[in-house]
Amino acid sequence: MFDQETHxxxxxxxxxxxxxxxxxxxxxxxxxxxxxxxxxSYSDSPKLEDEKINWEKPRTENxxxxxxxxxxxxxxxxxNKLGTISTMKLQKLVYYAQxxxxxWDEQPLFQEKVEAWANGPVVRDxxxxxxxxxxxxxxxxxxxxxxxxxxxxxxDAVLEFYGxxxxxxxIDLSHQEKPWQEARRGLAQNIASNRIISLDYIAExxxxxxxxx
Length: 213
What we know:
This protein is mostly helical. The chain contains 8 helices and 4 strands; from the N terminus they run ααβαββαβαααα. The chain has helices at residues 18-35, 71-82, 87-104, 124-130, 149-162, 167-175, 178-183, 199-211; strands at 85-86, 115-117, 120-122, 135-136. A two-stranded antiparallel sheet has the order 1-4. A two-stranded antiparallel sheet has the order 2-3. Strand 2 and strand 3 (120-122) form a beta hairpin. The protein is globular and about 40 Å long. Residues 1-65 have low confidence and may be disordered.
């Protein structure tokens, strides 16, 4: 069993066209967030057995083109772009990168599961890596160069919109979106959970945002 982790929520720190981000994101996401803010802080402490994670991944040039990035590669790319970042914000940016990769590129950016924790979407494997740290300045077990140009373009587009938002803003936004809500159906907001957020539901929901007028 692992000890309860308490996170502080103080502020830390074409399909992918300018037109889409400035019009659709601001209209759909920002307005929805401003309409119903909930500034309650939560702590997440799922009482689950610790798992042994194999951090070793092959890193050789001859498999670079075929290799799908893992969550650490994506996190390393984000940290390289933004610099030191809170672990809570990193978790949310990784989630949104996965979500929009499913929409724009029609495939997951990484294979690790996203769970619906009380603090919003969390990738448990990444949590085990940064556990106990409020912020990180590097992800040494990740290789950002393993993202191909299309994947980098996707993450860059996500960072263009979400990258300057606070961890709390991203948490509140995820709480108002259906993938997290559906995964936690029947649970109070502050109740620990390890329920998986379905990739199918993530793709369906964020595709619907893109298609809204």
